[in-house]
From TrEMBL, chain A:
<dbReference type="InterPro" id="IPR005025">
    <property type="entry name" value="FMN_Rdtase-like_dom"/>
</dbReference>
<keyword id="KW-0285">Flavoprotein</keyword>
<protein>
    <submittedName>
        <fullName>FMN reductase</fullName>
    </submittedName>
</protein>
<keyword id="KW-0288">FMN</keyword>
<dbReference type="InterPro" id="IPR023932">
    <property type="entry name" value="CE1759_FMN_reduct"/>
</dbReference>
<dbReference type="Pfam" id="PF03358">
    <property type="entry name" value="FMN_red"/>
</dbReference>
<dbReference type="InterPro" id="IPR051814">
    <property type="entry name" value="NAD(P)H-dep_FMN_reductase"/>
</dbReference>
<dbReference type="InterPro" id="IPR029039">
    <property type="entry name" value="Flavoprotein-like_sf"/>
</dbReference>
<feature type="domain" description="NADPH-dependent FMN reductase-like">
    <location>
        <begin position="6"/>
        <end position="155"/>
    </location>
</feature>
From TrEMBL, chain B:
<keyword id="KW-0503">Monooxygenase</keyword>
<protein>
    <submittedName>
        <fullName>Luciferase-like monooxygenase, FMN-dependent, CE1758 family</fullName>
    </submittedName>
</protein>
<feature type="domain" description="Luciferase-like">
    <location>
        <begin position="1"/>
        <end position="294"/>
    </location>
</feature>
<dbReference type="InterPro" id="IPR036661">
    <property type="entry name" value="Luciferase-like_sf"/>
</dbReference>
<dbReference type="Pfam" id="PF00296">
    <property type="entry name" value="Bac_luciferase"/>
</dbReference>
<keyword id="KW-0560">Oxidoreductase</keyword>
<dbReference type="InterPro" id="IPR023934">
    <property type="entry name" value="LLM_FMN-dep_put"/>
</dbReference>
<dbReference type="InterPro" id="IPR011251">
    <property type="entry name" value="Luciferase-like_dom"/>
</dbReference>
<dbReference type="InterPro" id="IPR050766">
    <property type="entry name" value="Bact_Lucif_Oxidored"/>
</dbReference>
Amino acid sequence: MSTRTLAVVSAGLSVPSSTRLLADRLSTATVAALRERGEDTTVTVVELRDHARDLADNLVTGFANEALRGSIEAVTGADGLIAVTPVFSASYSGLFKTFFDVLDKGVLAGKPVLLGATAGTARHSLVIEHAMRPLFAHLRAIAVPTGVFAASEDWGGDGGVDRALAGRIERAAGEFADLVTGRPSAAPTEALEGPFGGTPSFETLLRGV
Amino acid sequence: MQFGVFSVSDITTDPTTGRTPTEAERIKAIVAIAQKAEEVGLDVFALGEHHNPPFFSSSPTTTLAYIAARTTRIQLSTSTTLITTNDPVKIAEDYAMLQHLADGRVDLMMGRGNTGPVYPWFGQDIRNGIQLAIENYALLRRLWDEEVVDWSGQFRTSLQGFTSTPRPLDGVPPFVWHGSIRSPQIAEQAAYYGDGFFHNHIFWPPEHTQRMVEFYRRRFEHYGHGSADQAIVGLGGQVFMRKNSQDAVNEFRPYFDNAPVYGHGPSLEEFSRETPLTVGSPQQVIERTLGFRDYVGDYQRQLFLIDHAGLPLKTVLEQLDILGEEVVPVLRKEFAALKPAHVPDAPTHASRVAARGGAKDATVYAAADDVTGQVRDEAPEEAQTR
């Protein structure tokens, strides 16, 4: 049994938050789905609320402070990412977007990402499709076909979760687990060649002129 | 090891008084700062190049030539010279000229500029930033190293039989540093030519600087210029000092909180923890600066930023006094004691001339003067004997 790493980014602001609740459901379902496929999983949760000031500082200074660096590395180094945001003004929250704004270019390329969103009303049901998917397409991440949107009313069923929502969570987790297991484990952040190992040699740079 | 100051040439409101200096005041102030830097025993004064407010230094060679005339010892440099948007022919001419006037006390640091719009102001395109830096510098090297240059490239008109004048002083061009914060291609370029690599250092966590410097050192060795620890490294630093560290913090805080680059973000304490910024006593500055060596290795040049964010000239000159009297003498001694013998000092004109086997007159005499039509053997005798 190999071990996979999963990062969960939750942009919920209240405590407890339904965004975190959805993130936890997605993560639990994914761990179970990976176990069915013969994989152990370690999960790191990044609560963006804890990084609200760190992210604002990063916008101003251009670099992530130590606390934020740890969370960024957890996300960029993971085999798969679960990203969940509340809907603010018909889109992902500013805090959620800021986290993805401060990542270095290309760090999520090819990474399987399971998308989730929460809102007070079902009228925002397509927010994953019209807001989140374009963002992750730009980041060249591989978004799972099923995204999971949960409105307040979805939390009202038996056992706290509507049966339909539970079904969507399970289907999404299964698709996500298939994507994660279909890929080699994420390489350590620094490969043998060391940092900047991918920089073209000067001869190549000169030829590019 | 060389110690000095570098200025970005910003004209910033003093947040404690609400007063903004005029261009005239700041331009005269920068001359006073350079003269004071020499007077207190620093080795290097470097000046930035910018082409938009709030900066004044659009024409560094004019300023540096004026400073050269009013100083005798201090090394003059840039921080940085825009290799992307300046015509390399003009850089070759301007800095060779400055080199003659300053008796060789000149080197320069190549950079790509701080703002996207500067590219179109000079007929270039920011999307070509790295390629401009590479092609323009390749041409600049040839203009200094070869008397007669035929050139064709992507970014400027071709040259046929072109000679850049004046020729570098004693036939030895100024030493070149390449400054880059986050582009490994520039570190690669510095390594390829065996030039120096300068990391701004001051707005970034040490790990970031360490990775870039390590990469440059490894590539310097790869290109056969010496071992990795013999590569020529410079670092920025940012300090504010008073005898009592709490006085330094109290005095500097309003400048920090309102600074154009990082103000209105992290606290002074947080930024000091995350970056090399040191606000405190001279002893704290000494200890922090010595610590830079722990992550970049033995290095050749340390430049401090001390005149930004609206700090008044009087305060800047006081900072220079503290640097010169209390900080740099200790750093000089401590760094020297730590440096192994095989690690070189920063190149100077004298050391580079010696490495070439002595000075030679590099004057290129025209075969025929296309203004007067005179051919060489008709030229006045003093022109031939110099």
